[in-house]
Amino acid sequence: DHAHPPIHPVRCGERGQFNDESWRVYELITRHFLACCAPDARGNRTEVEISIAEEEFATSGDIVLDRGWLDVYPYSNWVNDPLPQFRNQEVVAFSLLEMAESRTQPPPLLSEADLISLMDREKIGTDATMHDHIQKIQTRTYAVKNADGRLEPSRLGLALVQGYQRFAAEEGMDLSKPILRARMERGMEAVAAGRQRKEDFLHEALDIAQRCYAALERNAPALDHTLGQHFSSQLDVGRRAQVVQAAFSMCRCGASMELRRHMPGGPPGGGAVRGRARGRGRAGRAGRGRGRARAVRGRGPVQRGRAAVSRQELFLVCPNGACGVVLRLSLRSDQTPTAYGHMCPICDFQVLNIKNEETQRNHQLCPHCFNYVPQVADLQQDVELQLELEVLLRLLQSSLRLFECRLIVVWSLWYGHRGEHQHLPVQEFGSYVSSDEAKLCC
């Protein structure tokens, strides 16, 4: 597959040089190599079709003439299974007819070998990458291996496939099928063989990826709905969460939204303290002075480097039955939200102020735009909105900064509208945002 040369033995090995498992691997590689160099196995196959009262029956039998490479490679077998001699159009008598009663059975779950065979048939991946693909779907918990070593789709995997199938009904491209991946694999093979230019392949592949992304973005609500049928939705979790403060901030419908906190189940602590700790005094094996502490087990959340900060699941819930909006706020435990005295000009929800209790710094975000990112192309067409954004941003300019790369005050919109450079100078952002970050931020 052009990924690496075939695996082959490079010198003779003795049984005593290996443990049991290593010897089995070495023997498999060596016998496979020798079988590739051995003569073909030859045999005859007889196929018979018999008609009984307009019902068709078929069977076959094999006769091995020369075992060839089969003598070298015992992992495959070809046995003699001869049939009696028949003549064409011969009439034969049968002695027994059996009608077995049974029920159809679903196909068994795929083993890793079964999946590799299917991937090879559908041209997904190469010999060098197939195992990585299989490992990746397990790492992402789309599938898990059961006690029998077979791959079983998880609830997330089933939900994702059903979501893609619903997306296919809307857009006509089914991302749960291997068609697009196989097409890209064929393109890469063509580039490796010199039948296609690399630039042409990249242009085509990027065009397909961009169209898929745009289509997924258009159909995100439908995909969310399908996934929500398998998992507790944000609406359900938010509405069941405990009320922390009523009348917290304003919804776009005019009602006062409630701030709620979701308390996930499970005992606190019990995690592992990991990573390196730097500091003065005694630190691991470094002794006095600066040093690094080795990983230790302990109670509490997983920590890397400095003390880990847990996250809190907060929700803004509109009590207005005709509205019922639920917005999720995933904040660190050292961040405190409060209502801010401005309404977002994009969605008419009240802006929130987020205070970091450790650094005492503040930044603002719109809770609705944080959850539902508006399209830049749509905003660029609204000149009046750009002017409102400019006024709001100049009011917030001293404290505005990036927050998890998802918040949406679009600094460059009105600058692009006025024909100026898309990146604002650093001084326009106060001390928190660099000019390189000034694309989409809030």
From TrEMBL:
The keyword DNA-binding applies. Keywords: DNA-binding, Isomerase, Topoisomerase. One of its GO terms (molecular function) is DNA binding. It holds the Pfam family Topoisom_bac. It is an enzyme of class 5 (isomerase). Coiled coil: none annotated. It catalyses: ATP-independent breakage of single-stranded DNA, followed by passage and rejoining. This is DNA topoisomerase. Residues 275-297 have a biased composition (Basic residues). It comes from Symbiodinium necroappetens. The lineage of its organism: Eukaryota, Sar, Alveolata, Dinophyceae, Suessiales. The gene is top-3.
